[in-house]
Amino acid sequence: MSFTQLDPALPVTVEDKGAGYAFAVIDYGQEHNLIWVVALNANGEIWCSPNPKVRLCANWTMGRAVPTRNLMAAE
């Protein structure tokens, strides 16, 4: 198991939770999803979210479009 603090934190959106900043990642090994530790913008709650539920925010400069399913609407 490894715990990695992200510096700087990454702006992300978590399905069914909303937008926030990922400030750490937990890796339990090859048989598990990465776990993103995210502080939500709306209410300050901190959630540990599995990798399939976490998306980076859109970034026009990097060519990363908003996902097909618009997760940003949950902000």
Fold and architecture overview:
The chain contains no helices and five strands. The chain is mainly beta and 75 residues long. It has one domain (2-74).
Mean pLDDT: 88
Helical residue percent band: under 10%
Total strands: 5
The helix/strand series, from N terminus to C terminus, equals EEEEE
The total domain count is 1
Strand content: over 45%
Q: Which spans have pLDDT < 50 for at least 5 consecutive residues?
A: 70-75
Cα(first) to Cα(last) distance is: 31 Å
Question: Order of strands across the widest beta sheet?
Answer: 4-3-2-1-5
- Net shape: globular
Radius of gyration: 12 Å
Describe the main β-sheet briefly: 5 strands, antiparallel
Annotation field: number of helices: 0
Structural class: mainly beta
Index terms:
disordered C terminus, 49% strand, single chain, 5 strands, mainly beta, 75 residues, 5-stranded antiparallel sheet
